[in-house]
Design brief:
Tick-borne Encephalitis virus Glycoprotein, domain 1, mainly beta
Amino acid sequence: MNSAPAAVVRVFTLLSCLLVATACNETSPTGPAVPLSERFVLAPGATAAIAKADISVQFVGVSGDSRCPADAFCIQGGDAIVEVRVLDGGAAALYQLHTGDKQRASAAHRDLRIELLDVQPYPFSARPIDASDYRVTLVVSR
């Protein structure tokens, strides 16, 4: 009995199983699906698909961070400016969300509200924050 055809069948079966397993991933191509009105955390460049809203939200980065360091005394609290991109079908919209101004901590997109809840890490005077270390907590609601 020739074992070569049996080996080919086993390899083909293994590859088929791997393809089926990866095709059944529960996340969208842009990232994990997040329900409306549920908090989610993104790293720079990461994207989350918003379930039942037909949009994705991408954390582009922090374009400015003047928040008062935790180990300092400041007259003003400062502000972190977070840039998010909303991907809506073939269109994209860029929004700036602020930590230091509650009125500018959210943006309206269609009938949705994208709100910035938190920016981490919090600054310390002796430790600069690398752009890749930022994480934002967002929520999208109607």
